[in-house]
Amino acid sequence: AAVFRTVFLGGLQPRRQILPLPIHTVQVGGVRHAVSGSDEALGLCRIQPKGGAGSHGLVKSGEIVLKGANKNFFENKLCAQLRHKSKLHGSFEVTRAQSTVYIEPLDDSCDMDGMLADACKVFGIVSVARAAVCEKNMDSICETIRAYLPDKLAGKKTFKVEAKRADKRFPLDSMEIASECGAVVLESVPGIRVDVHNPEVTVRVEVRETNAFVHPGPVKAAGGMPVGSNGKAMLLLSGGIDSPVSTYMIAKRGVHLIPIHFFSFPYTSEAAKEKVIDLAQTLTAYCGKMRLCIV
Q1: Which SS3 state, helix, strand or coil, does residue 182 take?
Q2: What is the pLDDT of residues 23-79, one digit of tens each?
Q3: What are the contacts of 150-154 at 24+ separation with CB within 8 A?
Q4: Which of 89, 163, 214, 233 has the lowest tally of Cβ within 10 angstroms?
Q5: Rounded alpha-carbon distances, angstroms, from residue 243 to 9, 17, 134, 252, 279
Q6: How many C-beta atoms surround the C-beta of residue 241 within 10 A?
Q7: Among 92, 118, 128, 106, which Cα is nearest to 213's?
Q8: Are 160 and 195 in contact (CB under 8 A)?
Q9: What are phi and psi of 19, to 5 degrees?
């Protein structure tokens, strides 16, 4: 009989199954539980928090905004993925409003840089920005620009300001907000000048429901649709390049995947099997929690 080995990847809690054949359970994603196998080959490590309170993460979804009555289903899947990722980096609150997801650190021990780096790998997100949060008035916004942006714009020669007034009750329109904020940037950052056509950096000012946010532009993320929003599928995972690429591309369309690897001992070595486990572990950064089945 073939020996069936199940490896759990990317989860924070290992699942348990009773099988008639030997089973090894491995948890990947910061915490390790292994019955047997090579821990060193898996290269697992716990990520230490580095701090990050005082700023928020602004996450923008892509195709999800085109959805209709079922939009909440996709947004809930996306927030669930982010909450799962956040457990590795500290205590965060993940909320959503008006097609924007907010990531708020709840204490000084949170690793905001690590959290936002992981958010960029979550399918369904097109951009991530680390923003300073302030009250919804021009005095507070201008003061935040003076305190937050000079370091971010150091070495930049040109800029422009784009403003978004999601709260239409705000007394100034988007053009007026951008004009006033641009003047503050010119005063606060020596040697920088305005270029509305080809700026090196675009400063964003977003006036939203409860607060205003200031940031020097977003970082491009993975895009696609949230994993789990488009059903489940099984795939064959080998040690080559084709199957990992297809895994990534299918998961990007929202499919939750269960990879299967056929270990043909003695025709293939133990190193070949560990290589497949390493590939699957790498894919969990994008594809989320997966159960790798080795036959």
Answers
A1: helix
A2: 333 333 333 333 333 333 222 222 233 333 358 999 999 899 999 999 999 999 999
A3: 150/188, 150/189, 152/201, 152/216, 153/185, 153/189, 153/192, 153/201, 153/203, 153/216, 154/189
A4: 233
A5: 17, 27, 46, 14, 10
A6: 9
A7: 128
A8: yes
A9: -120, 150
Q: How far is Cα 53 from Cα 9, in angstroms, rounded to an integer? A: 29
Helix (H, G, I), strand (E, B) or coil at 16: coil
Buried b (16+ CB within 10 A) or exposed e, 249-266: ebbbebbbbebebebeee
DSSP string, 1-15: -PPPEEEEES-SS--
The per-residue pLDDT for range 269-281, each reduced to its tens digit, is 899 999 999 999 9
Rounded-to-integer distance, Cα 255 and Cα 232, Å? 5
Map tokens 């920088």 to a residue. Answer: 192
Task: Read off the tokens for 51.
Answer: 């701090």
For tokens 């930049």, the residue is 156
- Quote the CA–CA distance of 281 and 259 in Å, as a whole number: 11
Place of tokens 């008639």: 20
The residues, ordered by sequence, that sit 6+ positions from 132 with a Cβ below 8 Å of its Cβ are 54, 55, 56, 144, 147, 148, 213, 214, 215
> In the predicted model, is pLDDT for residue 21 greater than 90?
no
128-150: pLDDT as tens digits? 999 999 999 999 999 999 999 99
Q: How far apart are CA 164 and CA 46, in angstroms?
A: 38
- How far is the C-alpha of 103 from the C-alpha of 95, rounded, in Å? 7
Round to whole Å and give the CA distance between 174 and 160: 13
